[in-house]
Write a structure and sequence with these properties.
Layout: H1 3-6, H2 20-30, E1 34-39, E2 42-48, H3 49-55, H4 68-71, H5 85-95, E3 99-104, E4 107-113, H6 114-118, H7 124-134
Antiparallel strand pairs: 1-2, 3-4
Helix pairs in contact: 5-7
Length: 143
Amino acid sequence: MQLKDIMTSKVVTVSPDTPIEQVAQLMQKHNIGVVPVVDDSGVKGVITDRDIVVRNVAHGTNPKTLKASDVMTSQVTTAAPTMDVSDASRLMAQKQIRRLPVVENNKLVGVVALGDLAVNPAFDTEASEALSEISTPSRPYRV
């Protein structure tokens, strides 16, 4: 099975200039935790709800003045729609990511989330293994 068979193809996106407040409102409206940041040349980054908290709220900056490009993760791992689901699961585990933008000809065509794997009985073991890898801290956090 390929990513195109399980991906979400109707994806909410924003531009790099979109105010963070608007990004958060889109997340709330659509009940989503990630929004890809795109422009005419393709995917520029992704913003997660955690990015907004850690890179905006925790610093006390104004979400009305910050733009998506100020908060987004710009080192984005992407996949092709023809990628095998098992390979995508391994990639997500290796990179410790829960969501994988799917790109074709530099254009965002979908997103695959770990949950997309978990709800498919054929991939529940791979999803479990990926989640285990993703949930392992990359470095210890000390308070």
